[in-house]
Amino acid sequence: YRHCVEALSRQSGVTEETVARAAIQLATEAVPRDGASTRTAHVGFYLNDKGRARLESVVRVRWSLRRSFTRTVRQYPMFWYVGPLLVITAATASLVLKPVFPFGWNDWRVWLLMVLGITGASQMAVALVNLLTNLMVGPRLLPRLDFSEGIPADDRTMVVIPTLLTSPQAITDLLEGLEIRYLGNRDPNLFFALLTDFRDAPEPVEPDDADLLRLVRDGVQSLNARYSPEGVTVFHLFHRSRVWNPHERLWMGYERKRGKLEQFNALLRGGPREPFSEIIGDLALLPTIQYVLTLDTDTGLARDAARKLIGTMAHPLNRPRFDPPTGRVVEGYAIMQPRTPISLLSANRSRFAQLSAGEAGIDPYTREVSDVYQDLFAEGSYVGKGIYDVDAFREATAGRFPENLILSHDLVESGYARSALVSDVELHEDHPASFAAEMSRRHRWI
Fold first, then answer.
1. In sequence order, which residues have a C-beta less than 8 Å from that of residue 85 and are 6 or more positions away?
2. 295-304 pLDDT per residue, tens
3. What is the pTM of this model?
4. Which of 24, 53, 77, 198 is the most buried (most CB within 10 A)?
5. For 151-184, how does the pLDDT look when each residue is reduced to its tens digit (9 = 90+)?
């Protein structure tokens, strides 16, 4: 906010105190009109949100030509994004295809070259427009509350790892990863849980099921004995048994990862516990959980990353507003997706990983990170690893999707629940070590 006040003061020629007083006055006037809990009653709405244009008119800001153009682009993002895409694609394709026009439209080769030419030109246009957008608009950083001294009880959060129980070694690695995430993010109002299923199977019970469940149960209880001998339980386990899926003709966890999270969200709000055959933890704690931070098995949680994400979610300008007529979140965000670069260890695991992982490791200082969707449209893409508001997420997605039709669920969920990219928070994940593993993952996504 101080940066915003300084910029407005510099461009308007008035003192910083005058700018701050004007913002406070606008927020104060909105309280009797819109209510004290609305976005317009928050001073940040006028310093760094949709109300900024009104504050600029009050203090009579005189922007440069580039700044004025940037504000126009953000005001009409679809026009300024799709328009240049179409123009560049058409211009490039016409130049490439000009030599084949004399052959006539009845020649099938002309149509084939036209399809290939337009496809290639469109890819170049997307890259060019994205680059120009990043240069002109710049990163859009989300406001955040400072929770470095602790997470408030009203913003209590559960970190969950939806996963499969496949082998004793995998369970050992899973419990070790859970402990590491906890040690880097200790807080009295931050809790950790495993949401587990058995592997898909032709029978409801496999011979090694009992041993695998005993291992994970003993591991969670051991972590609780070590880190929470008294008081609130830190580590939890929610395990589901297999159910028959007539579509797949297998016994499996209901709707896989999406089903785990949907049933867990329902349990947090007093729903049935029957979907979970094994529960370790404090059930009285569950109704107090405001946010869920979901991670993949191979996703690391950097030190204090949870506090930063929770602080961003809890900020008044980011809180979601659900619109019942459309069934969507229309303001704020129900989901926040951090950046997920490849971990340095994973990127050096094999020659294939070195060639395909790109930049890896931690690099928070050398540059600001820009994302076209977040910077231009104020929305990001959810890729399944992030934090969400339990109530808003349930309102937007519960019961909306048909069974046995959605496997890669994250993008469609963010279309209803509205997702933001938190570009200054990183969660590192693994990269496939072989070409076969990469193709297997892409096949699953497709």
1. 122, 125, 126, 129
2. 999 899 999 9
3. 0.89
4. 198
5. 999 999 999 999 999 999 999 999 999 999 999 9
CB 213 within 8 A of CB 239: yes
Give residue 243's Cα distance to chain centre. Answer: 29
Contact 88, 129 (CB under 8 A): yes
Query: Which pair of structure tokens corresponds to residue 63?
Result: 């922007």
pLDDT at 100: 65
| Average pLDDT by stretches of 10, the chain with 446 residues | 81 85 90 86 87 85 78 88 93 80 70 85 92 83 91 97 95 96 95 96 95 97 89 93 93 93 96 95 94 94 94 94 91 92 80 77 52 87 92 91 84 92 87 87 78
Q: What is the pLDDT of residue 363?
A: 53
Find out whether 422 and 339 touch, Cβ atoms under 8 Å.
yes
User: How many residues belong to the chain?
Assistant: 446
Strand arrangement, sheet containing 386-389: 278-280, 235-239, 190-198, 157-165, 291-294, 386-389, 335-339, 419-426
Tokens of 250: 């297998």
